[in-house]
Specification:
Layout lengths: L2 H29 L13 H17 L7 E5 L4 H20 L2 H15 L1 E8 L8 E5 L5 E4 L8 E8 L1 H7 L7 H4 L10 E10 L3 E8 L5 E8 L4 E5 L12 H28 L1 E4 L27 E4 L7 H16 L2 H4 L9 H14 L1 H25 L13 E5 L6 H18 L3 H4 L4 H11 L15
Antiparallel strand pairs: 1-12, 2-3, 2-9, 4-5, 5-6, 6-7, 7-8, 10-11
Helix pairs in contact: 1-7, 2-4, 7-8, 10-11, 10-12
Amino acid sequence: MTPEQILARHARAAARRAPLEHGWRDAYAHVLPRADQAAALFDATAADAAEQLAASLLAELCPPWSRWFALAPSRPDAAEAAAMEEAADTLQRHFDRSNLAQEVHQAFLDLVITGTGLLLVEEAPPGEASALRFSAVPLLSAVLEEGPSGRLDTVFREMRLPVPEILARWPFAELPPALLREDPEAEPARHRVLEAVWPDSRAGHRYAAVLADEAPRFLAQGGFAEAPFIAFRWLKAPGETYGRGPVTKALPDIRTANRVVELVLKNASIAVTGIWQAEDDGVLNPATVQLVPGAIIPKAPGSSGLTPLAAPGSFDVSQLVLEDLRARIRNALLADRLGLPAEARMTATEVLERSAQAARLLGATYGRLQSELLTPLVARSLAILARRGEVPPALVREGAAQLRYESPLARVQGRADAANTLLFLEAVGRMGEAAAAQVDAPAAARWLAKTLGAPAEVLIPNVEVP
């Protein structure tokens, strides 16, 4: 595509997104306001619940400093399994030394509020602690398109950059002479730059950076084997491109709760200071009256002076309405389901049931996040490490390895299966030696180790038992 074609395609995609922007900004103003918007926020229930949900997603899907994935060969092979286990350890070490946890958490905030998150995965310069660098891209600065596969594989990111930053990002860019002659002592002008990534049948994904001035021109062109931008959604309605988040569902209640708290505070102010009426008797000047302790207010003989005006009614019903609204907001943002339990002492069965309930609530969302976020994230990161020679290049071939998730949420079903198996083994043990002889104990131990995510080092090598 030419620069003009890229800008025209971006403009069409931005026009399709325009009807959603007002709702997104409204959601941000009520849940994650900027410093200049905080004065209009009176109730922090939604803001607190949204932060809890984003932190819970991070802890349940890709917890920091914990292995949340594993690699296994497509065919049973001990040597390949050991190589893939070593590659998974290498990738985990790079994740731990990178900024993955911080940036994914920020992307999860976008996901919770707007229903769509965007993460940029880049290769870090040589010499840094990790080969991977992550950036959470604000959704309001990006425009997305859905491809035939149903993924958001076309991404446009618009930026405003000064000339020195443009040259730092793209040192080989050919800029117009007028831009290079800008006064270095003056405040640098910011120029519109558009980055675009779209799928290509021959090159994987094409990349272009366009200087969108009067005469658009390329700053850089290239390609990626894997998409550097990873867009993911909470859920989506049929026919829609962008996702819908839990804040979108709870926004009417969030607006109402914010308004109710504002009215309660106004009513409290009236209850404290009161509303007064004064008779214009030529002595009392209401404009000079100060309601402070020990004040002496003059009045004419026989006049009523300054008298309080009775409130029209009680505002106590607002507390009932507010409690119901806050409960619905916390329920919509899963704060009561994924947060810390109110009862600290819980049995193992209660913990398992609570985990199973969380898995049922997030089943569809987790499946979408696994497909749209976690799998592309691991594939892109492994490809970067393979190009650096830190993992075997054959590992990134399609079909060479199976990706298995071991996050807390992914292990919920495994724990349930393990509990059923242990119950079966306990019942068989009570049936006598003849029944126990029907159970292959070493195989059962290996299956439990695999199901519960135990490390391979705790098991002896798999040899034939005489």
